[in-house]
Amino acid sequence: MGTRLAAIDVGSNAIRMSIGEHEKDGIDIIKNYRVPLRLGQDSFSRGVIQDSTMKALIRAFIEFQQLFIKHKVKYYKAVATSALRDAKNSHELIDLIYSTSHIQLDLIDGKEEARLVHLGVSHVENISKKHALLVDIGGGSVEFIISIRGEIRKFFSLPLGTVRLLQKANQCKPIELKRFLRSEIRKRIEPLQSYVRTFKCEDDQKVFVGTGGNVKSLNRLSSEIFKDSKKDEMSFKEVDLLEKILFGYSMKERTTILALKKDRADVILPAVLMLEEIMVLFGFKNIRCPNIALKDGILIQLSK
After folding, report:
1. Pair (175, 255) in one structural domain
2. What 8-state DSSP symbol labels residue 191?
3. pLDDT tens digits for 79-102?
4. pLDDT confidence band for 189 (50 / 70 / 90)
């Protein structure tokens, strides 16, 4: 048996854990866990994590500790991102998690998020000779990573996460939602145009890579709806049609007809608009969707 590793990502929309086994030829994922706990709903509206949410998070970590024992995990790393970064009582919560589960949770900044996402993408996508834009769409923030021949040259962590955007839009009438979200996204990402449009390379050496749960869900929908859709890739036409389909359905229809989880069926709306706006403003015809997330970068780091 190889070395057992665990990665925990405490995000703004959910908590995720992956347990993997490291052998000489790589990491085999043994089990993935997801707890649908929306920390961002507390943090971005109240500035603190409420008691009921804290208790649910602590219960999840106690269960994770039991899973560590069950799967004989030797090394782990647990990180928290935007929602806990913004919460005034984050350090109190981190102390409670450690005292009850003996799992150390680390707050990481946007720069470290970008590094871990880049590490994960580099492991599965050949970007060592390309000019790449990596975009990790989270619930609280969105990481824009400019990679030239496998090296991070610049990164931007923008407060454009899907949970955060929906909270800003909570007073919008349904008919106004798309316009509001598009406006919020565009005004934040337009200033980044110059960094990407000046990629000095041929189109076949330029690549756009999307990561995170929303990108994974959109890629699944694309594969199911469009017969000619490529695995792990979407064209601009497919993204554009998905946007129209998703906004044309009610919340209930997105969960029943499209089989989206309830906590995915709302946040996927700003996510699909994000991809569409990036492709339009930055001139990308396709997006690679390698099913990579922050936790994958953590596992790769642990294996080194």
Report:
1. yes
2. G
3. 999 999 999 999 999 999 999 999
4. very high
Q: How far apart are CA 178 and CA 175, in angstroms?
A: 7
pLDDT of 200 reads 62
Q: What is the pLDDT of residue 177?
A: 95
| One domain for residues 140 and 281 | yes
Sequence-separated (6 or more) residues with CB below 8 Å from residue 280 = 236
The b/e string for 28-40 (b: 16+ C-beta within 10 A; e otherwise) is: eeeeeebbebbbb
Question: 9: which strand partners?
Answer: 16, 79
Find all residues with CB under 8 Å of 19, minimum gap 6, and list them.
4, 5, 6, 29, 30, 31, 32, 33, 67, 71, 73
Same domain, 18 and 97: yes
**pLDDT value at position 196?**
76
Helix 268-282 to helix 174-189 angle, to the nearest 10 degrees? 40
- Burial of 56-95, coded b for 16+ CB within 10 Å and e otherwise, reads bbbebbeebbeebeebebeebbbbbbbbbbbbebbeebbe
Same domain, 49 and 167: no
pTM of structure: 0.93
Compute CA distances 32 → 5, 8, 157, 234, whole Å: 12, 10, 26, 25
Half-sphere exposure of 104 (CA within 13 A, CB side): 5
Provide the CATH number for the domain around residue 152. Answer: 3.30.420.150
Instruction: Judge whether 10 and 97 are in contact, CB under 8 Å.
Output: no
**What pairing do the DSSP bridges indicate for beta strands 15-23 and 26-35?**
antiparallel
β-bridge partners, 219: none
Q: For residue 218, give both structure tokens.
A: 């959109």
Q: Which domain holds residue 104?
A: 3-108
For the stretch 216-257, pLDDT in tens is 999 999 999 997 777 899 999 999 999 999 999 999 999 999
